[in-house]
């Protein structure tokens, strides 16, 4: 760069103006270019500096108050938090209705079987002939229907014929001898036409309790159980024990 170019750059930098501002000023007083020699003539630096000052003074001044304030609009953003997830329900064991009913029925059946097995024979109820209803002796005797015949038996675990009659009468507060022969000798003998339910029916070797009509309740023989049945004895003796 030539000496003239370097000086021009220095002047522009010191005045704070760009080259375009200088170009917009009054016609430059710089010497015209010598077309023959291709060299710049001498530049009047004082004139350039004066023009720069004039341009600055002519520029409008921007004044800002010391307490000036400005505001910046802010967009309001509302954020709705996502709802908390609902807790997962605990698994519930559901049995099918048919299976539940099956278990219930099985349980009830087992309970009924157990109660029936544990119930003493005297708690069993039976159908008592109409003619025998109202007799305390018959009511007591009917409790033991189904108890097996046991030779020499005198308890609800097993009876023979005289063991059964003596046990039933004892429940009614009446004492009878142990054997059928001895029982045939007590009380008052009455005709069959006057017999009432609860009277004794005796034949040699066997004794039963009259149940009214043509029926009796007794312990028949080994292999049988206490039961109501027809009077089979021929010409039996009816006995009433007060």
Q: Averaging pLDDT over every residue, what do you get?
A: 73
CA-atom Rg in angstroms: 69 Å
* CATH fold-level topology of the largest domain: endopeptidase fold (from Nostoc punctiforme)
Order of helices and strands: HHHHHEEHHEEEEEE
How many DSSP helices? 7
Determine the fraction of residues in helical runs and give it as a percent range.
Answer: 25-40%
Main sheet properties: 6 strands, antiparallel
Number of domains: 2
CATH top level of the largest domain is Alpha Beta
The helix/strand class is alpha+beta
CATH architecture of the largest domain: Alpha-Beta Complex
Unreliable stretches: 2-31, 33-38, 94-98, 111-126
Side by side, the strands of the main sheet go 3-8-4-5-6-7
How much of the sequence is in beta strands?
A: 5-15%
CATH superfamily of the largest domain: endopeptidase domain like (from Nostoc punctiforme)
Q: What is the distance, rounded to the nearest whole angstrom, between the alpha carbons of the first and last residues?
A: 165 Å
- What is the general shape? rod-shaped
Instruction: Tell me the number of strands.
Output: 8
How would you describe this protein?
The chain is α+β, with helices and mostly antiparallel strands and about 240 residues long. It folds into 2 domains: about 5-60, no CATH class; about 125-240, endopeptidase domain like (from Nostoc punctiforme) (endopeptidase fold (from Nostoc punctiforme)), CATH 3.90.1720. It is built from 7 helices and 8 strands, in the order H-H-H-H-H-E-E-H-H-E-E-E-E-E-E. It has helices at about 5-15, 20-25, 45-60, 95-120, 135-140, 160-170, 180-185, and strands spanning about 155, 160, 190, 200-205, 205-210, 215-220, 225-230, 235-240. The strands form 2 sheets. It has a 6-stranded antiparallel beta sheet. Strand 5 and strand 6 (about 215-220) form a beta hairpin. Helix 1 packs parallel to helix 3.
